[in-house]
Amino acid sequence: MEVFGDYITLSVALLLLLAMGLALAFEFVNGFHDTANAVATVIYTNSLRPVVAVVWSGFWNLAGVLYSNGAVAFAITALLPVELILHVGSAAGLAMVLSLLVSAIIWNLGTWYRGLPASSSHTLIGSIMGVGLANSLMSKGHVFGEGVNWAKASEVGVSLITSPIVGFGCAAVLLLLSKTTIKRPDLFRAPARGVAPPMWIRGLLILTCTGVSFAHGSNDGQKGMGLIMLILVGVLPGVYALNLGTPQPDIAQIVISAQRANQTLEADPIGLPEGKDPLSSADSESELSDYLKTTGVASAKTFRALTVVNSTIAERLEGKSSLAGLPHDARQELRSDIYLAAETITKLNRQGLLARFEDRGSLLRYATELNGITRFIPVWVKVCVAFTLGLGTMIGWKRIVVTVGEKIGKEHLSYAQGASAELVAMTTIGIADTFGLPVSTTHVLSSGVAGTMAANRSGLQMETLRDIALAWLLTLPMSMFIGGALFAFALNIIVRLGMR
């Protein structure tokens, strides 16, 4: 069977459809959870009817997804083991993607059924860590635990842990400031049953709902996009390994930057001691791959390997007017070289090992230029993700909305409380987008509602908060366990289908 110039077997084609279906199913269930939070306040303050609110939120999720730059998507995929990213089309690579998606869907469905606003981000990251740990346990020559990018995991973990605290504290402070500065008692009253608020309040709450929906699409929507791109790169590398629309001037600039990067590296006698035998391309790729593992340590060999890979990239792109002119097999190989070079420079910089180079800036710009070729997301992928997010919200919104609107505080949500929680949520998510950090809309918004209830002395329903906290604590270990177990099972099945 030929698909876009790539020849694949029927079994692989079926796996592609299955993997794509699971990735979209994850976003569908994500709509149950996270997008439902965005409409909770407008529904419970009678600002919009439920059907209108859900459709409105879905539209702005679509806008957010289309606006997103992909930074969060690639921050999520960076958690995966290096060898699985480089060989995502292998049996282990496809087993990884399938198992982490199924794991995330299982846990999300379970918490949704219980009406608990658990984090889809938390779930997905736990599943990724689970398959990474299982891969390191099952692969020969691997140290248990090195299958997870712990540096990136800690960075993501901090954002997920601190965001609910920010949501609780900032929403509480914002409500108190509003009470001090806005002398409109009707803003701080609970809405009468079935009665729409005054127009100015209604406009405020619709605006905050819009902001949260847009921010959610721009952040949470990216997680599914990153996984879909991994699937496409693994199965159809000839089409999706590289951004074939990269203009010729950008290709020529990368060749110049690769050569300049080598001049910078070779000018440093500490990084590249003279008199050493040259490394082969295979040895260089192996060295950089080992360095990018959690246990990897930089040495003079690492810098030498980087110059070899840079030279290979320059040779592959020299004189090319378009990436489409590269043979299909060469596209995946170039993608691997680009990934190794860009990630090595990034890690060296993070560890402070580029500080001694006089032209450190050119190395960092080179890494950014390389990422531009591989970190791309087609518009059709964004539209598919946005559509499934919105569809999931329309079908499964009610359980989570009821929890946020009725079961967190002992009193009905007031207009000011809803607006404060959503303003904080949209701001927090927007800031996280800027830094490419995944955060949980669910955690930020539900903790924001709890913060306003505490600040208003409305009382908190401790049973609900206990259940939410328990789900929050169990999400990571349970999704890790499910993901790891499914990885072992899926790898066995895919190998039996004849893939390697």
Notable traits:
500 residues; 2 strands; single chain; 73% helix; two-stranded antiparallel ribbon; elongated
Structure description:
With about 500 residues, the protein is mainly alpha-helical. It folds into 2 domains: about 350 residues, no CATH class; about 130 residues, no CATH class. Helix content is about 75%, strand content about 0%. A two-stranded antiparallel ribbon has the order 1-2. It is elongated. The chain starts with a strand and ends with a helix.
Topology:
Layout: E1 2-3, E2 6-7, H1 10-44, H2 50-67, H3 71-77, H4 82-86, H5 91-113, H6 120-138, H7 150-181, H8 199-219, H9 221-235, H10 237-240, H11 248-266, H12 281-292, H13 300-317, H14 328-350, H15 360-374, H16 379-407, H17 415-434, H18 441-455, H19 462-496
Antiparallel strand pairs: 1-2
Helix pairs in contact: 1-2, 1-5, 1-8, 1-9, 1-16, 1-17, 1-18, 2-8, 2-16, 3-9, 5-6, 5-19, 6-19, 7-17, 7-18, 8-17, 9-16, 11-13, 11-15, 12-13, 12-14, 13-14, 14-15, 17-18
Write a compact overview of the structure shown.
With about 500 residues, this protein is mainly α.
Query: Would you report the number of β strands?
Result: 2
**Biggest sheet descriptor:** 2 strands, antiparallel
Strand content: under 5%
Morphology? elongated
Oligomeric state of shown chains: single chain
